[in-house]
Specification:
Elements lengths: L13 H15 L8 H5 L14 H10 L3 H8 L2 H12 L8 H9 L7
Length: 114
């Protein structure tokens, strides 16, 4: 965010200049929606972070099956949820060090505070 320099030739013109600036700033800059914090944090919710984050694909899959980080934490704590995470992230592949395993192990020591 920058602070503009507004030329002021005399004190009498201050109200007019401020009104002009204020009305032009409303139309000049479109409102930018705030970033989704959960989506920004989700790639880091793996045991391989910070060295290797979740891929964009894995992040998108998790946001599709879980509506919030709390839902993901809850899912990673149940057998059914773990199976769902493995099914969607690993496409049924059986191998070590998968994205699903990283996510599940990340949430193993966490608990949900309500």
């Amino acid at each position: 965010m920058s602070i503009p320099i507004l030329p002021l030739h005399d004190v009498v013109s201050l109200p007019t200049m401020l009104l002009t600036y204020h009305s032009s700033s409303k139309t000049a800059s479109p409102s930018v929606p705030p970033p989704n914090t959960a989506e920004a944090l989700l790639p880091h919710c793996t045991t391989s972070a910070p060295y290797e984050l979740l891929s964009e694909h894995s992040t998108n899959v998790l946001t599709d099956i879980c509506s919030a980080l709390g839902d993901l934490a809850a899912a990673a704590g149940t057998d059914e949820g773990k199976m769902q995470i493995k099914e969607y992230l690993d496409d049924g592949q059986v191998r070590g060090n998968t994205d699903a395993e990283g996510v599940i192990h990340f949430w193993e020591e966490e608990w949900i505070a309500e």
